[in-house]
């Protein structure tokens, strides 16, 4: 999902009331039937139709966290995101006509000191980092990189060393990616334009597959997700995701780390895709990552299919768990 869309006017960060159109929004009967099997649907609906708190990540390639806080705290409230030391929820101190929502217009944003990034979106690079103190001098691939939120976060953890391949498959997406990488001061990257499934013969230390998905975890940011949702698209997307995940796994070196993430809450796109890889490759192991975040249990079976036991170590968060977007992340090691 495109984090650049996050600059839109989305209201008070603590307000759990939907926008004016929320009461008119209808969920498709099949969607309701499916999600009633997975979670408390009324709570999920409440959060999915509520405003999303704005959040930023400090780009420590250009500025320290303390220095950035000194620049902003006069006019903005900054609340630490528990699972990411560089991440903060941000809310303006002004009232009435003086209240600002346009975080994207800040000078600090233009200078690349901050990246406007949803709090749950910061998790995949943290999973990649794991308990490592740094990721210096590694060869890393971000297979589906645009617009660059996770790419710039990975480069930050690499301390701008090594080589980071930032790939995407459309020219207009590459344009946005290039602008963001330049703004954030990356100097260790190579941008490539190709279908992810065509990578072959590489030996990467780490790979991120932040896969194209149905985006059902992002309803509170994009209501059109509800209008375009259909089960057939989920099946098609899951097929594409399996191809991307297998390609990434085959391009990992021994003991390499593969991060698979989506902003979907569909079991077929999440646990189902990971389970498929685990069942096909005995040397694929899911490692748990301990983060200070409220988690929901992974889905172990759905629609008559029982998933591989290892998927219990995947991270699944619903919007109501931490008042964020919904997200799914798995850390897979190639033994």
- Structure classification: alpha/beta
What is the percentage of strand-forming residues?
15-25%
Report, as a whole number of angstroms, the end-to-end distance.
30 Å
Helix content: 25-40%
What would the principal axes of the Cα set say about the shape?
globular
Report the CATH topology name of the largest domain.
Answer: Rossmann fold
- List unreliable stretches of 5+ residues: 1-20
CATH architecture of the largest domain: 3-Layer(aba) Sandwich
Q: What composes the largest sheet?
A: 8 strands, mixed
N to C succession of SSEs: HHEHEEHEHEHEHEEHHEHEEEEHE
User: How many runs of DSSP E, i.e. beta strands?
Assistant: 14
What does this structure look like?
- With 335 residues, the chain is an alpha/beta fold.
- The chain has 2 domains: 3-14 and 52-116, Sun protein, domain 3 (Alpha-Beta Plaits, 2-Layer Sandwich); 120-334, Vaccinia Virus protein VP39 (Rossmann fold, 3-Layer(aba) Sandwich).
- Helices cover 29% and strands 21% of the residues.
- It contains 11 helices and 14 strands.
- The protein has helices at residues 29-36, 41-48, 65-72, 107-110, 123-129, 149-157, 171-183, 224-228, 231-250, 271-280, 319-322, and strands at 55-58, 76-80, 87-92, 114-116, 139-142, 163-168, 189-193, 204-210, 252-262, 284-286, 301-302, 305-306, 315-317, 327-334.
- The strands form 3 sheets. Strands 5, 6, 7, 8, 9, 10, 13 and 14 form an 8-stranded mixed β-sheet that branches. The protein has a 4-stranded antiparallel β-sheet with strand order 2-3-1-4.
- Helix 6 links the parallel strand 5 and strand 6 (163-168).
- Helix 5 runs parallel beside helix 6 (149-157) and helix 9 (231-250) crosses helix 10 (271-280).
- The protein is globular and about 55 Å long.
- It starts with 28 loop residues before the first helix and ends with a strand.
- The model is unreliable at 1-20 (pLDDT under 50).
